[in-house]
Give the backbone structure.
Amino acid sequence: MNYLSAAQNLDTLRTPCLVTNLTIAKQIAQQAGSSESFRRETQDFKDDPGHYLCIQLGGRVARLLIMGGAETCSAAKFRNMANVMAKALLDMPIAQAAVYLLQAKVDEQDLGWKAQTLMQAMSHASYRFEHHKSQSKPASAIKRLKLLADPADLKPLRHEVRLGNALHEGLQLTKDLGNEPPNVCTPNYLLAQARKLARHEKVSLSQLDEKKMTELGMGAFMAVSQGSDNPGRMIILRYSGAPKSQPPIALVGKGITFDTGGISLKPPPGMDEMKFDMCGAAAVLGATKAAVEAQLPINLITVVAAAENMPSGRATRPGDIVKSASGQTIEILNTDAEGRLVLCDALTHVQTLKPRLIVDVATLTGACIVALGTHASGLYANDDKLAEDLLAAGERCGDRSWRLPLWDEYQTALKSNFADMANVGGKGAGSVTAACFLSRFVKKTPWAHLDIAGSAFHGGAAKGASGRPVPMLFNFLAAQGQK
Ligand code: BES
Ligand code: MN
Ligand code: ZN
């Protein structure tokens, strides 16, 4: 999908389809001398959100896609309308469409919000993952969406459209990586994908292989990776979009390319969904791609902790004690709590690169799904300002998170009789104790953790990666760039 902007000049507009509200549609039909047929065709049309009607006009504007209730509405209704529009456009045999909806009055939302909402809806609706189907369905014809605005708004709109195109690319990458099967998407595959990002002149890549990680004392990471025949990787991308003097923002992603649980083996039902256990890695790579495409004026470090959690003769046993790169020892009571083990060494490593803040993203706990379901990602932070910025970034684009506590009281659950800590807490608050575990590996840097176990992918009939929380991360990074 390609997004464009243009001035709304209805007198000269030429398009296979104009998407607009009933009032403007009527005006266009009048200009085209089709008032009578327009009146007939729209006679039963309900001008309410959720309703739409497509009318053939012929001439300069070949079709009108009339969106109900598009003049004044709530933010939720506008978002819903954007989704309805996207589905309708994808069903049409047209290569491009023009959208004249930005003049809508939406409660408390500005032009940028409306433009982003329309573009995001289109990006999501147009997504297909059919690399592994021997016969794929014919692709939708539409490739370009032109947003029309008042000439006075054209400059800000151009900026928004640039962000929309960048986010589209990032979402695409994140979903593709998530959906690839685990026999394709291995740690080495993630490394190859990161290398592609590093072809950009402002991006560079380095990586730690298992030998190097062992030398660096990353016993926690290696405890997970050692059971697999697919070697683990710590992948580090650096994007320089701002002067060197500006300290970088760091994103860290959990990249478990398949989580069997290890010796603490998971039960078979739904185990295939554990291919999505690298969605944190996919999200930080997607957000990085979007930041690079948008040329955000920030410095960014992206770390992916990529490993496969397998049972084998070399796998970690419950009860094994390992030493993390931070020097702290961990009694691994459950090998299925592996995400925190790869992440703690990644967090230790990223702090040596002196970031000004760290956000880690992980499909970390089933308990987070119990707490929040799929609508919100779980957010934890050792810094209120960072938490607020992330919450606001997600709120703006409908990719929301909800803050959960990191109180000291919860830390006691991680007590071990034999090591500095256990890798699991007791029965309750599993998402919190996982976050508490990670917090022990962050020294003074402002840090936030996003538990995306519920939000990163859909199960059931719509099984597939959701692309979350890329919109939130990208919005956050864009806002950081403005400071
Ligand atoms: N990858 C899982 C968490 C998960 C579950 C993500 C469902 C997405 C959907 C994680 O590695 C895990 O297995 N966590 C355990 C932790 C427990 C052993 C303390 C869990 O949630 O059961
Ligand atoms: Mn697990
Ligand atoms: Zn996992």
About this structure: The longest helix spans residues 154-179. The two ends are 30 Å apart (CA to CA).
